[in-house]
From TrEMBL:
Organism: Kribbella turkmenica
PANTHER family membership: COA BINDING DOMAIN CONTAINING PROTEIN, PEPTIDYL-LYSINE N-ACETYLTRANSFERASE PATZ
Superkingdom of origin: Bacteria
Protein name (Swiss-Prot/TrEMBL): GNAT family N-acetyltransferase
N-acetyltransferase domain location: 31-185
Keyword Transferase carried by entry: yes
Amino acid sequence: MTPPDHYDAQPPAGYPAEFEADVVLRDGATAHLRPITANDADLLVAFYARVSEQSKYYRFFAPYPQLSDRDVARFTQVDYHDRLALIVTVGNEMIGVGRYERTGRRTAEVAFLIEDAHQGRGLGQLLLEHLAQAARENGITRFVAEVLPDNRKMITVFTEAGYKVMREFEDGVIMVEFDIAPTDTSFGVMQAREQRSEALSIARLLTPSSVAVIGASRREGTIGNALLRNLRDGGFTGRLYAVNTDTEADEIEGVPAYPTISDVDDTVDLAVVAVRAEMVADVVVDCAAKGVRGLVVVSSGFAEIGDEGRKRQRYLTGLARSYGMRVIGPNALGLINTAPGVSLNATLSPLMPSRGRVAFFCQSGALGVPILADMVGRGLGLSSFVSAGNRADVSGNDLMQFWYSDESTEVVLLYLESLGNPRKFSRVSRRLAGRKPVVALKSGRSTQGVPLGQMVRRSQLPAATIDSMFRQSGLIGVDTTGELFDVAQLLAHQPLPKGRRVAIVSNSDALTLLALDTMAGCGLDTAGEPRNLSPDASAEEFGVALSEVFADDRVHSVVVIYTPPVQSNGAEVAQVLAAAAAGSDKPVVSTFLASRSVPEELRVPDADGGAARGSIPSFLNPQYAVGALAKATQYAEWRRQSDSKIPELPDIDTRGAEDFVAEYLQRHPNGADLDDADRQLLLSFYGLSVLPSFPVLSADEAVQRAADLGFEVILKATAEQWRMRPDLADIWRHIHDEDDMREAWAEMTRTFGVAADPARAQFVVQKMAPPGVPVVISALEDVSFGPVVSFGLSGVATDLLGDRSYRMPPLTTRDAAEMVREVRAAPLLYGYRGSDPVDISAIENLLHRVSRLTLDLEEVVRLDLRSVLVGATGATVLDTSIRIAPNEKPRQDAPARRLT
């Protein structure tokens, strides 16, 4: 088998490479989607020859046994604007094609043809999504199609797409027509399909019936030998094969051996690859010929070594996907599935954790081994584990899609070194967190560092953006691996808290004080006075205190601290604690004999011999116990409010704004900062108004403009170097008459040293706004995150302290509310020291409108509402700045489904 031809072909002029995509089909296999070219003539002819006569009839409404040369030329030669065709390929074969042809200024006719053997795999829906996205970019807003009444599959493609479809029967043909603008329904349909297909692609990797280790070795200490041993000793229930070109033996480590994978006289579902990097591409081709469904590439020598390795890694990924295979790695530790019917340990770690309810995704291979050891040491059971190494293909997003519907997983842990697609990560993790707790540790937050092997777009945003995104998505962010497992221990065994009030039962005053200090720092409240028992308190005394707190409706969670007296093993205390907690819906954490696990005495055994729900976790000290409880409490609060919606905004003119941006870029093809009039116009499309300001170049001009406005104005220097000075010398307020204006002019030109050339200060006259608290709302189009909206109070102090909140659009009502409240200076908005509270809803309204604008218009690369005064009954925007530039790198989470 040879690599696909498109890897070597040079695309024609005008070829839209941005329309190419690797996609996951309904059955979890992958394929390549791309625009057609004239070089695809033979590919099209061969494809058409495999299509049944019925499918041809459905496409052309008449018998059409073969394509003429004229047909082939017409179908393969397109302009990619008014006429576009997208094809889906697997290896060197085309399996589907969809096209549109413009029939009006904003209307196009759409049609599909899918090879019969591949119908039912979701190709029609995928092609429609990608055609619609391309059409929108080319100014088309509506699709029409003609479908024969008995072509039910194609009718289903249109009706189940999530668009509002109009159907009309005419002359024996169903006329279908629909707008292709994305809607909440169409987004929901696409995301549900994305989740199902990506989850299935991971299930194919985690549940193989047969595994081949390519590069297996009988020499101890080698990677190939370790992989083979771990698979064998881990109890893999399927068929296991060893592949090594240098061996003529019939077996290696008791496993049947073959010189190549093609020699294996059986099907192979999963290949674990441990050969030299330069040999991996040939292995991929051999695996494709064998029908392998997925690869775990342990081999190093890829992106982590530099440019040559990056090219090798890109080729590996594209090659595997083009043949329908997903790839874990390269440079990966591997994957584990503890399901009794699988028992798969395809990693370099000899440790096989017990069966449990916690799933783990880890990017670092080096950290994967100690992580597994820590889990085993704590007795924390595992459902599945993937260490993705360079993460060239399979990522944390894919695993979260799988765990969303995996009934054996109740808690998800993530160790992340980079975010390849932050927008998709935010969307997928938020959906998952709404169903199951997700605990995440992100390394490199302070430096934005990325390991060499991971090819990602490098963000320019501050580290606080990651923390904000975690909060927005409902993720439980932690700072250390120890905290990661502490929180997991609690979530895997205890229910979520229903509130913040915590009761403490303890026989150590010193440890009680530590617990109280930690609670205060974490925002937890005490439910009455702690039940402080004597150091030698008996089990009966503990039982009485525990009965009281579990019966108290004010108590939401319980912390139990037990430090045993001399010559006591605590068994009796454990019994009364377990009995008191049994059946309670209040989570319990303990510091029991300083154990860092689920002690045997506090364990409720499950069917697999592990710790079932209801088991009581123990922590080394009360600080760790309370810290984990605080994280669980914050998550529970988010979960209770996670149903907040994206608000409907009236008076939004998206089409007008898009037309304005397109026209502006025609005038400024390299991008530019908008002048005042253009800023006012663009913002008006989103219901945002700015208090007008008028440039002036002399005192006389300033006086005249102030008189025109009826005085009660300000004089402001808007040059960037003088804005927002700590001494507020850039603004002269309360100008009531001509004398005030001339005094203001003289003083400000003297202060800035621009008396001879006032234009350097860029003075403007503006009507006085109602009094209020000054705030700033900004949006930035980041190359990695896409649009990010920030909020803070105006002033040098908040700038120096970085007192800003961040969120990724779209914003729900809860997102906007949290943005306002989580900045440290927020008390100034709520009547600080007797001042009047401001109109918080007005701030939230501005946040929603800015969010919507930046989400709709990715060419708006920067937007600042630089000065907004928020009063008791509204907000006044005083100063803005906007830059529009061409979109050189499209956002990574486009509406149409694709692997990124």
